[in-house]
Amino acid sequence: MIRVQSLTKCYRRKIAVDDIDFTVESGKVTGFLGPNGAGKTTTMRMIVGLDEPSSGTAEVRGRKYRDLQSPLREVGVLLDARAALKSRSAYKHLLAIAATHRIGPARVREVMGMTGIEDVANKRVGGFSLGMGQRLGIAAALLGDPGVIILDEPINGLDPDGVLWVRSFLRQLAAEGRTVLLSSHLMSEMAQTADQLIVIGRGRILADGPLQDVMSSATTTVVRVRTHRAEHLVAALARDGVTLTSQPDGAIDVSGMTSEEVADAAASEGIVLYEVSTHAGSLEQAYLALTEGSAEYTAASIASKEENA
Ligand SMILES: Nc1ncnc2c1ncn2[C@@H]1O[C@H](COP(=O)(O)OP(=O)(O)OP(=O)(O)O)[C@@H](O)[C@H]1O
To answer: Is CATH 3.30.70 what the domain over 220-279 is classified as, yes or no?
Structure first.
């Protein structure tokens, strides 16, 4: 379990992380989602002791990362896939990390097998693609068979096979009871990988909870109907709390009523419906609604910065 309490990080005048609280539970994949500059990396760096908080605490399994006796065996971390020494082979790179915790070559070979990099074991890390570097970073994170795994943007640079592999691999690690925290700005990927979501924007938590709850709190489910008697239907459905929106193709989107309520109201007026379908909001819509105004760099802000330059 990871627990973050009143965590704040200021760089001179910039507040990168602003008094945040959250808990990451074991047995689940928790997605840490937010626009560029939201504070994801800074938060993860504080959790693993690479940055000192300005105030507040971040604990892994009830202790600060720096106080863990055998960190590699408790927390697996991938923060920067390009951080490996370029002149070393993948095998030697992993062996060097393993040696810090008296982990032997057998486990090094095992994690290379798990992450699909055995064939490039003797290749120089400097020649690796970003995707291979991500696999190497994940292999390093797994060396100590840790119960907590923290990965910053682990699917950056991966091809579709690699993305699929990371997704099923992380789900498997969570199913084994581990705590898995991964950051990404790819909403579609999170929708398929995460059980829980923490959404951050401008250093503040915007949403925290089960994926479905976060999505339904930030989006509206609509009932789409079609009829030849649109005006009559609108009159039959109009009431407080119900919003009716005409679509360019003639459909009417109804929010504030279930599909059954819409169909019953139409039937009681003798209005024939040709379509009654329910459309839930996507994670992308939820994300955009939640992070509206939180992106550090948007097309408009870049344009105005350039004008002022
Ligand atoms: N060492 C630093 N010195 C000054 N400002 C920093 C430093 N590190 C991060 N920041 C600022 O803190 C804010 C949060 O950055 P952070 O890298 O944590 O965001 P992020 O959510 O990981 O973004 P991205 O998705 O782009 O990686 C940004 O405004 C960033 O410019």
So the answer is: yes
